[in-house]
Amino acid sequence: MSDESPYILVLYYSRGGHTADMAMQIARGVARVTGITARVRTVPPVSPDTDASVPAVPEEGAVYATVDDLRHCAGLALGSATRFGNMAAPLKHFLDQTGDLWLNGALVDKPAGVFTSTGSLHGGQEATLLTMAVPLMHHGMLLTGIPYTEPALGRTQAGGTPYGPSHWAGTDQPHPVTDDEKAICQRLGERLASLATRLSTTD
C-alpha cells in the first residue's frame, strides 16, 4: 500500500456505456463505507492495426488506468462487457501487463469482485464473470461475490448473479440498468470497501 488514502479500484472496459454505468453504481456502494474511496478507471481500446494510436486521455468518461492504480489499490472491482463468454480484449491486454505485480505479490490478500454486461439475457454472463476471476486468483486476491442476503439478487428479472453483478443490456432497444441491478452493483462496492477496511486493520 502507498501512503495515499485507501481506495477501491473500479476498473472496466465499456463500449456501449452499460458497463460504465455499472462501474458508477459500484463506486456509489464504496462511498457508503467511511475511510475509503472509489477510483474509477477504464482501459484504452486495442486494435489489430499496429499503427492505431490511442489518445493519452479519453475524450469522455473515466481516465485510463495505470499499473500503479492497480498496484496501490486496497481492493478491486473488475468489469467488462461480454465477448463470447469472456472479458473484452482491451481489459485482458491490460491484465497481461501486470506480471511484475504477480512476481512481487502486490495484490495478494486484497479483496476483488467482477461485473459484466451482455446484450442477450443468456449471453455468457456467468462464464465471463468466472473467467475474469481467474487472473485475479493468480494474483492471490480474495474473491467476493454477492450473497443471497441481498434481496435484489432473488428479485431481479434482468441481470444479477452470486458470482458478481451483471446487466442485461438488450440489443435492438438497449435497456438501462434496472433498480435491482443497481442495488446488486452497490452491494458489491460496499462489500469490497468493508472487506478492505477490515483487512487493513488486521495487518
Notes on the protein architecture:
The protein is an alpha/beta fold. It has one domain: Flavodoxin domain (Rossmann fold), CATH 3.40.50.360. Helices cover 36% and strands 18% of the residues. It has seven helices and seven strands. The protein has helices at residues 18-30, 67-71, 89-95, 99-104, 125-138, 151-155, 179-201; strands at residues 7-13, 37-42, 75-83, 86-87, 111-118, 142-143, 166-168. Strands 1, 2, 3, 4, 5, 6 and 7 form a seven-stranded mixed β-sheet that branches. Strand 1, helix 1 (18-30) and strand 2 (37-42) form a beta-alpha-beta unit. Helix 1 packs across helix 7. It is globular and about 45 Å long. The relative contact order is 0.21.
What is the string of SSEs from the N terminus onward? EHEHEEHHEHEHEH
- Residue stretches low in confidence (pLDDT < 50, at least 5 long) are none
CATH fold-level topology: Rossmann fold
For the residues shown, what is the average pLDDT? 91
What's the β-strand tally?
7
Number of domains: 1
Helix content: 25-40%
The oligomeric state is single chain
- What's the architecture, going by CATH? 3-Layer(aba) Sandwich
Span of the ends, CA to CA? 11 Å
Main beta sheet = 7 strands, mixed
Number of helices: 7
CATH fourth-tier homologous superfamily: Flavodoxin domain
- Beta-strand fraction estimate: 15-25%
Any idea of the CATH class?
A: Alpha Beta
Alpha-beta content class? alpha/beta
Protein name: NAD(P)H dehydrogenase (Quinone)
Domain Flavodoxin-like: 8-193
Keywords: Flavoprotein, FMN
GO molecular function, one term: electron transfer activity
